[in-house]
Specification:
Blueprint (H helix, E strand, L loop, with lengths): L1 H28 L2 H14 L5 H19 L6 E2 H17 L5 E7 L7 E2 L5 H9 L9 E10 L2 E9 L12 H13 L4 E7 L3 E9 L2
Parallel strand pairs: 2-4
Antiparallel strand pairs: 1-3, 4-5, 5-7, 6-7
Helix pairs in contact: 2-3, 3-4
């Protein structure tokens, strides 16, 4: 049993090292100066009257900068992760019409601690991927964050509809989140996923050190 436990731990470490190596390789293939200079040039090509397009490009630039520079394998302030999620959800909202409602709630208690970078966004991506497309009923994605009794509480809900498909909500994205949580927060997290005919709900609790 001890050997099996050591093997499992080593396999987790190898998976993490592989992911970090892949990220570092990706970064090495991108010339950040070229990317941001190009984005800056495109920004000024957009007419000043088109504020939505300028704001969207600015948010995308911030998100890209976060991915390239802020996640070198270390935890980041939760405030930065929140800002990233806000930008991501705002960009997703631009792709939807007025039949879709996106809500983001974050209490004042969610501050002053660090979290693994890009841990939450796959859950939000999943919600947008599987959101309903009703014509006469609400289509919603709602995210909320709180901090209570040493716990970081993350909840996300999206409306859904039953479609004739073999693809289950979640898939590889949720599997990866589970693996990261097991590796990064062993014994300090609880991930609960529920689904009904109308909703898909995820609750994540992380015990803060």
């Amino acid at each position: 049993m001890l050997d099996y436990g050591r093997l499992q731990k080593r396999m987790g470490e190898i998976a993490k090292e592989k992911a970090e190596a892949e990220l570092n390789f990706l970064k090495s293939q991108i010339n950040p100066h070229f990317v941001f200079n190009t984005l800056n040039a495109i920004y000024f090509l957009i007419q000043k009257e088109n504020a939505d397009a300028r704001n969207a490009l600015h948010r995308f630039s911030d998100m890209l900068r976060y991915q390239l520079y802020e996640m070198g394998g270390q935890k980041v302030p939760v405030e930065k992760e929140i800002a990233y999620l806000r930008d991501y959800m705002d960009l997703q909202q631009l792709r939807k019409d007025d039949r879709y409602t996106v809500r983001f709630h974050c209490t004042e208690q969610v501050k002053g601690f660090s979290i693994e970078p890009l841990l939450l966004v796959p859950l939000v991506e999943n919600a947008f991927k599987h959101i309903s497309h009703h014509k006469h009923q609400p289509n919603e994605v709602e995210v909320s964050m709180d901090r209570q009794n040493g716990q970081f509480i993350f909840d996300i809900r999206n409306s859904r509809e039953l479609l004739p498909t073999t693809e289950k909500p979640g898939g590889i994205g949720l599997q990866n989140v589970r693996r990261r949580l097991e590796l990064l927060y062993p014994g300090k997290h609880q991930l609960t996923i529920r689904e009904t005919d109308q909703e898909f709900l995820v609750n994540l609790n992380i015990t803060l050190s």
